[in-house]
Amino acid sequence: MKECIILAGGLGTRLRTVVAELPKCMAPVAGRPFIDYVIDYFVSQGIEKFVLALGYKAEVIIGHIQEQYPQLDVQFSIEIEPLGTGGAIKKACGLLEGKAAVVTNGDTLYKVDIGEASAAFSLQKADCTLILKPMQNFERYGVVELDEKSRITAFKEKQFYEEGLINGGVYLLNTGPFVKEEFAEKFSFEKDYLEAFYGLRQMTGVVQDVYFIDIGIPEDFEKAQVELA
Q: Based on CB atoms within 10 Å of each CB, which residue in 95, 131, 159, 210 is the most buried?
């Protein structure tokens, strides 16, 4: 697994109180744009090529990446108007070279073991493998349930849970079948693909209890300033 799509088109609306007028992935954390931590980590996991799916203020991200990562093998997939997470991924798939890729979010750092996840993805002949984070006492995320063969059996709505597995926002995607699915031009990867197709396609989960931070809300953005310093 050598290629990675990073979804980085978000407006960062919920962060406007602490980060004015920047794409969410460019929010400064401990002196660096957050996306730097994402790129650096996935490079350390063996990713050799990145496709950044961009929208809002794409030029800000492109300028930063070209300046800070001049040697990085990176291409930019730019939405003229928002396509939703699914539409953004489908468009970005057109810039990939291989038949499978890691997909992640530019506002989340989940320090997954790509080698372990890739082995499971291949063994299970999965259309999509989700890397799942165990959590306790939370209500910000929904829960994903698995059977004994690691196949996804349910996506449960957001509410308070004492414990459960959450979608960590890192996917291993078999891109060929995915781009052939019939979707609207604008669609949600989570709702219109994962939740709609898990019973019809080979969708599996790999549980990895490793570092996870999502800077989408001010409280966790401030938490990241300390943890990633």
A: 131
The residues that bridge with 163 in the sheet, in sequence order, are 136
pLDDT mean values, one per 10 residues, the chain (229 residues): 93 64 88 96 97 94 96 96 94 96 96 97 96 94 95 95 95 96 94 95 97 89 92
The model's pTM is 0.94
What DSSP line would sit under the chain, residue for residue? --EEEEE-----GGGTTTS-SS-GGG-EETTEEHHHHHHHHHHHTT--EEEEEE-TTHHHHHHHHHHH-TT-EEEEEE-SS--HHHHHHHHHHTT-SSSEEEEEETTEEE---HHHHHHHHHHTT-SEEEEEEEEEEE-SS-EEEE-TTSBEEEEE-SS-EEEEEEEEEEEEEEHHHHHHS---SS--IIIIIIHHHTTTTTEEEEE----EEETTSHHHHHHHHHHT-
Specify the pLDDT at position 9: 85
